[in-house]
Task: structure prediction
Amino acid sequence: MLEPLHSRFEREFPFTAHDFNRVRSLIYRHAGIHLKESKEHMVYSRLARRLRATGKSTCRDYLDYVEHDEVEWQNFVNALTTNLTAFFREPHHFSILAEHLKRLASAEPRRVLTIWSAAVSSGEEAYSVAMTAVEVFGTLTPPVKILATDVDTQVLRIAEKGVFTRERVEKLSEANLKRFFLKGQGARAGFVKIRAELRNMITFRQSNLLASDWQVNGPFDAIFCRNVMIYFDKPTQYQILERFVPLLRPHGLLFAGHSENFHHASRFFSACGKTVYRVADLTERQEAIDG
Ligand SMILES: C[S@@+](CC[C@H](N)C(=O)[O-])C[C@H]1O[C@@H](n2cnc3c(N)ncnc32)[C@H](O)[C@@H]1O
Result:
């Protein structure tokens, strides 16, 4: 018989090894997220909040409920994702992006450039891309469109609003704060809101990288897929990378997170900078497009 894990800690709800494994298998199958053994406490505390919110008294009841209720299913997924992000996280990527946009704009001045942020979390990444484009083109309405997706609907709601606390933007320069945000007044003091022009460059939508159809219209000039692959195992990463190939324009850039590397998929991508990749073989790309 499995030992109830709560016997080792004083816990509000029983949480057995079987419950933990059931959670791991559900989230792995749905979102590709591989929860390590060491995440047991984190999982318990996130789940406990959902048990309280739904009035369930055991994890088993809660998980039975989750499997048959679409709304709670999404809450369950939202509860298990890790959404850490920041404006201009990994700043060197934005200098590389700026150079890339400049090159494209001078080669094809009339084309609208497109960028996909494939695990955007609460929006900071997509807004940093938008700010970079504004800088490059010297206008608040540059010819750049950004698609921003995530599996988590709760963070997408935050991203769509574009409202952030002052602490979230404290690393931005005063000049950029003035240029890209409106300061909250009265009850909204302590908050800033992204300017409508930047917001309008971005389409936010739910998309699961594990789904068979991402419903995205490529090809893109760049894909940001940062700090999400670390939650996936190598075969899952490989499949996603293969599917990125036809979604990038020739010479398009793929940005990865600081602790991610795609060397195991060198058939599809080769490094062209610190955690930046290009399609390895353009023939491979053409074949993927031709089917
Ligand atoms: C740590 S955040 C990274 C945010 C941003 N890309 C960055 O680097 O700052 C990881 C994001 O990946 C999202 N995520 C996890 N699994 C996903 C999946 N299967 N499909 C799409 N997004 C996923 C999470 O919801 C979370 O918002």
Observations:
- The longest helix spans residues 92-107.
- The chain has a mean pLDDT of 94.
- Strands lie at 113-117, 144-150, 163-165, 181-183, 191-194, 202-206, 220-225, 248-256, 269-273, 276-279.
- Residues 31-33, 81-85, 89, 119, 121, 125, 150-152, 155, 208-210, 226-228, 231, 257 surround S-adenosylmethionine (CB under 6 Å).
